Amino acid sequence: MDLWGRITAIKGNQIAISLESREELASLSLFTTEEQPQVVVSVQDERHISKIQRKKAYAVIGEIADYTGYIPQEAKEWMKFLFTMETGNPYFSFADTDMTTAREFISFLLEYALKYHIPMRHSALTYQDDLDRYMYQSLKYRSCVICGKHADVHHLDTIGMGNNRDLVDHRNKHLIALCRERHQLAHQLGWQTFKEKYHVKGIILDPQMLNQLGIMTYKRMKEIDDEQRKSYRQTN
Ligand SMILES: [Zn+2]
Ligand SMILES: [Zn+2]
Protein backbone atom coordinates (compact mmCIF):
# COMPACT_ATOMS: atom_id res chain seq x y z
CA MET A 1 0.00 0.00 0.00
CA ASP A 2 1.12 3.54 -0.67
CA LEU A 3 0.67 6.32 1.83
CA TRP A 4 0.71 9.82 0.40
CA GLY A 5 2.14 12.61 2.48
CA ARG A 6 5.08 14.85 3.24
CA ILE A 7 8.11 14.59 5.47
CA THR A 8 7.41 17.32 7.98
CA ALA A 9 10.23 16.80 10.46
CA ILE A 10 13.59 15.11 10.70
CA LYS A 11 15.20 14.35 14.04
CA GLY A 12 18.31 12.20 14.25
CA ASN A 13 17.46 9.09 12.28
CA GLN A 14 13.73 9.59 12.67
CA ILE A 15 11.39 11.24 10.24
CA ALA A 16 7.85 12.43 10.79
CA ILE A 17 5.47 12.03 7.87
CA SER A 18 2.20 13.90 7.73
CA LEU A 19 -0.39 12.21 5.58
CA GLU A 20 -3.10 13.92 3.64
CA SER A 21 -5.68 12.69 6.13
CA ARG A 22 -6.16 10.19 8.93
CA GLU A 23 -8.26 7.97 6.68
CA GLU A 24 -5.03 7.04 4.96
CA LEU A 25 -4.28 4.84 7.93
CA ALA A 26 -7.73 3.34 8.29
CA SER A 27 -6.95 0.26 6.24
CA LEU A 28 -3.38 -0.15 7.43
CA SER A 29 -4.28 -3.10 9.64
CA LEU A 30 -5.56 -4.98 6.59
CA PHE A 31 -2.09 -4.86 5.12
CA THR A 32 0.07 -5.70 8.07
CA THR A 33 -0.08 -7.01 11.58
CA GLU A 34 3.47 -5.96 12.38
CA GLU A 35 3.91 -3.44 15.09
CA GLN A 36 6.69 -1.74 13.18
CA PRO A 37 5.99 -2.53 9.54
CA GLN A 38 8.84 -2.08 7.13
CA VAL A 39 8.52 0.77 4.63
CA VAL A 40 10.47 2.32 1.81
CA VAL A 41 10.04 6.06 1.64
CA SER A 42 10.49 7.40 -1.88
CA VAL A 43 11.60 11.01 -1.98
CA GLN A 44 11.02 12.88 -5.20
CA ASP A 45 14.14 13.02 -7.33
CA GLU A 46 14.10 16.37 -9.03
CA ARG A 47 16.12 15.38 -12.08
CA HIS A 48 14.64 12.29 -13.70
CA ILE A 49 11.08 11.13 -13.86
CA SER A 50 10.69 9.86 -10.37
CA LYS A 51 8.87 6.98 -8.88
CA ILE A 52 6.53 9.48 -7.27
CA GLN A 53 5.75 11.19 -10.55
CA ARG A 54 5.00 7.82 -12.10
CA LYS A 55 2.76 6.99 -9.16
CA LYS A 56 1.01 10.33 -9.42
CA ALA A 57 0.39 9.87 -13.15
CA TYR A 58 -0.90 6.33 -12.70
CA ALA A 59 -3.07 7.38 -9.77
CA VAL A 60 -4.77 10.16 -11.74
CA ILE A 61 -5.13 7.88 -14.77
CA GLY A 62 -6.74 5.34 -12.43
CA GLU A 63 -9.21 7.97 -11.23
CA ILE A 64 -10.02 8.96 -14.82
CA ALA A 65 -10.42 5.29 -15.78
CA ASP A 66 -12.80 4.61 -12.89
CA TYR A 67 -14.89 7.59 -13.79
CA THR A 68 -15.02 7.04 -17.53
CA GLY A 69 -15.31 3.26 -17.41
CA TYR A 70 -12.18 2.59 -19.44
CA ILE A 71 -9.67 0.11 -18.15
CA PRO A 72 -6.54 1.90 -16.87
CA GLN A 73 -4.38 0.72 -19.76
CA GLU A 74 -6.82 2.18 -22.29
CA ALA A 75 -7.18 5.39 -20.33
CA LYS A 76 -3.40 5.71 -20.16
CA GLU A 77 -2.94 5.32 -23.92
CA TRP A 78 -5.82 7.66 -24.61
CA MET A 79 -4.51 10.36 -22.29
CA LYS A 80 -0.99 10.05 -23.69
CA PHE A 81 -2.43 10.43 -27.17
CA LEU A 82 -4.43 13.52 -26.18
CA PHE A 83 -1.36 14.94 -24.48
CA THR A 84 0.87 14.57 -27.53
CA MET A 85 -1.87 16.02 -29.74
CA GLU A 86 -2.42 19.01 -27.54
CA THR A 87 1.12 19.86 -26.52
CA GLY A 88 3.08 18.70 -29.55
CA ASN A 89 5.30 16.69 -27.25
CA PRO A 90 6.53 13.53 -28.93
CA TYR A 91 5.08 10.26 -27.70
CA PHE A 92 6.91 9.23 -24.55
CA SER A 93 7.38 6.25 -22.35
CA PHE A 94 7.16 6.33 -18.59
CA ALA A 95 10.27 4.25 -18.43
CA ASP A 96 12.65 6.89 -19.65
CA THR A 97 11.07 10.31 -19.95
CA ASP A 98 12.47 13.38 -18.22
CA MET A 99 11.06 15.11 -15.22
CA THR A 100 9.70 18.10 -17.12
CA THR A 101 7.65 15.99 -19.51
CA ALA A 102 6.37 13.93 -16.61
CA ARG A 103 5.43 17.12 -14.78
CA GLU A 104 3.61 18.47 -17.81
CA PHE A 105 1.79 15.21 -18.28
CA ILE A 106 0.62 15.14 -14.67
CA SER A 107 -0.62 18.73 -15.01
CA PHE A 108 -2.40 17.74 -18.19
CA LEU A 109 -4.10 14.80 -16.47
CA LEU A 110 -5.17 16.95 -13.54
CA GLU A 111 -6.54 19.61 -15.83
CA TYR A 112 -8.66 16.93 -17.46
CA ALA A 113 -9.87 15.73 -14.06
CA LEU A 114 -10.68 19.26 -12.88
CA LYS A 115 -12.41 20.16 -16.11
CA TYR A 116 -14.80 17.22 -15.86
CA HIS A 117 -15.05 17.39 -12.06
CA ILE A 118 -13.92 13.80 -11.73
CA PRO A 119 -14.19 12.70 -8.10
CA MET A 120 -10.86 11.45 -6.78
CA ARG A 121 -9.72 9.44 -3.77
CA HIS A 122 -7.00 11.91 -2.93
CA SER A 123 -7.00 15.66 -3.14
CA ALA A 124 -5.67 16.90 -6.46
CA LEU A 125 -3.32 18.89 -4.28
CA THR A 126 -1.65 15.61 -3.35
CA TYR A 127 -1.33 14.56 -6.97
CA GLN A 128 -0.19 17.87 -8.43
CA ASP A 129 3.42 18.17 -9.52
CA ASP A 130 3.49 21.85 -10.42
CA LEU A 131 1.93 24.02 -7.75
CA ASP A 132 1.66 27.25 -9.77
CA ARG A 133 0.00 25.45 -12.61
CA TYR A 134 -2.40 23.67 -10.28
CA MET A 135 -3.32 26.92 -8.54
CA TYR A 136 -4.03 28.41 -11.94
CA GLN A 137 -6.12 25.45 -13.14
CA SER A 138 -8.17 25.57 -9.95
CA LEU A 139 -8.97 29.22 -10.56
CA LYS A 140 -9.82 28.41 -14.16
CA TYR A 141 -12.31 25.68 -13.26
CA ARG A 142 -13.40 27.27 -9.96
CA SER A 143 -12.41 24.13 -8.15
CA CYS A 144 -11.31 24.31 -4.51
CA VAL A 145 -7.54 23.69 -4.44
CA ILE A 146 -7.97 21.44 -1.41
CA CYS A 147 -11.19 19.47 -1.82
CA GLY A 148 -12.26 20.06 -5.44
CA LYS A 149 -15.71 21.39 -4.52
CA HIS A 150 -17.06 24.43 -6.27
CA ALA A 151 -14.87 27.39 -5.35
CA ASP A 152 -14.96 31.13 -5.30
CA VAL A 153 -12.00 33.31 -6.02
CA HIS A 154 -10.43 34.33 -2.74
CA HIS A 155 -8.24 37.35 -2.28
CA LEU A 156 -5.19 37.06 -0.09
CA ASP A 157 -4.36 40.72 -0.10
CA THR A 158 -6.87 42.91 1.67
CA ILE A 159 -9.26 44.70 -0.56
CA GLY A 160 -7.85 48.16 -0.38
CA MET A 161 -9.53 50.47 -2.75
CA GLY A 162 -12.94 52.10 -2.88
CA ASN A 163 -16.00 51.63 -0.77
CA ASN A 164 -17.95 50.13 -3.60
CA ARG A 165 -17.95 46.40 -2.98
CA ASP A 166 -19.12 45.68 -6.49
CA LEU A 167 -15.91 47.09 -7.78
CA VAL A 168 -13.51 44.59 -6.26
CA ASP A 169 -10.20 44.86 -8.03
CA HIS A 170 -8.51 41.51 -8.65
CA ARG A 171 -5.52 42.97 -10.41
CA ASN A 172 -2.14 42.55 -8.75
CA LYS A 173 -3.69 40.51 -5.98
CA HIS A 174 -2.77 37.01 -4.95
CA LEU A 175 -5.72 34.81 -5.77
CA ILE A 176 -6.69 31.29 -4.77
CA ALA A 177 -9.73 29.11 -5.47
CA LEU A 178 -11.34 27.96 -2.22
CA CYS A 179 -14.72 26.48 -1.35
CA ARG A 180 -16.78 28.29 1.25
CA GLU A 181 -15.65 26.01 4.06
CA ARG A 182 -11.90 26.37 3.40
CA HIS A 183 -12.33 30.04 2.70
CA GLN A 184 -13.72 30.51 6.19
CA LEU A 185 -10.93 28.41 7.58
CA ALA A 186 -8.36 30.53 5.77
CA HIS A 187 -9.79 33.61 7.48
CA GLN A 188 -9.95 31.86 10.85
CA LEU A 189 -6.41 30.55 10.79
CA GLY A 190 -4.88 33.49 9.00
CA TRP A 191 -3.21 33.11 5.66
CA GLN A 192 0.26 32.23 6.89
CA THR A 193 -0.92 29.30 9.00
CA PHE A 194 -3.36 28.13 6.36
CA LYS A 195 -0.71 28.22 3.68
CA GLU A 196 1.74 26.19 5.75
CA LYS A 197 -0.91 23.70 6.77
CA TYR A 198 -2.00 22.93 3.22
CA HIS A 199 1.11 23.81 1.19
CA VAL A 200 -0.74 26.17 -1.08
CA LYS A 201 -0.02 29.61 -2.49
CA GLY A 202 -1.81 32.51 -4.13
CA ILE A 203 -1.03 33.56 -7.68
CA ILE A 204 -1.28 36.86 -9.52
CA LEU A 205 -3.06 36.86 -12.88
CA ASP A 206 -2.51 39.50 -15.54
CA PRO A 207 -5.51 41.49 -16.85
CA GLN A 208 -5.76 39.33 -19.94
CA MET A 209 -5.98 36.15 -17.85
CA LEU A 210 -8.47 37.71 -15.43
CA ASN A 211 -10.67 38.57 -18.36
CA GLN A 212 -10.21 35.21 -20.04
CA LEU A 213 -11.09 33.25 -16.91
CA GLY A 214 -14.14 35.40 -16.29
CA ILE A 215 -12.80 36.65 -12.97
CA MET A 216 -12.84 40.29 -14.02
CA THR A 217 -13.93 41.87 -17.28
CA TYR A 218 -12.06 44.63 -19.08
CA LYS A 219 -15.19 46.72 -18.61
CA ARG A 220 -14.95 46.39 -14.85
CA MET A 221 -11.25 47.23 -14.87
CA LYS A 222 -12.08 50.40 -16.76
CA GLU A 223 -14.89 51.27 -14.34
CA ILE A 224 -12.52 50.94 -11.42
CA ASP A 225 -9.87 53.00 -13.12
CA ASP A 226 -12.42 55.70 -13.98
CA GLU A 227 -13.76 55.80 -10.45
CA GLN A 228 -10.27 55.99 -9.04
CA ARG A 229 -9.41 58.86 -11.35
CA LYS A 230 -12.60 60.63 -10.30
CA SER A 231 -11.92 60.31 -6.58
CA TYR A 232 -8.32 61.33 -7.16
CA ARG A 233 -9.55 64.50 -8.82
CA GLN A 234 -11.96 65.17 -5.95
CA THR A 235 -9.32 64.90 -3.27
CA ASN A 236 -6.73 66.92 -5.12
ZN1 LIG B 1 -12.72 22.97 -0.41
ZN1 LIG C 1 -11.59 36.05 1.81
UniProtKB/TrEMBL annotation:
The protein's name in its UniProt record: Phage protein
Highest taxon above the source species: Bacteria
InterPro entries reported in the protein's UniProt record: HNHc_6
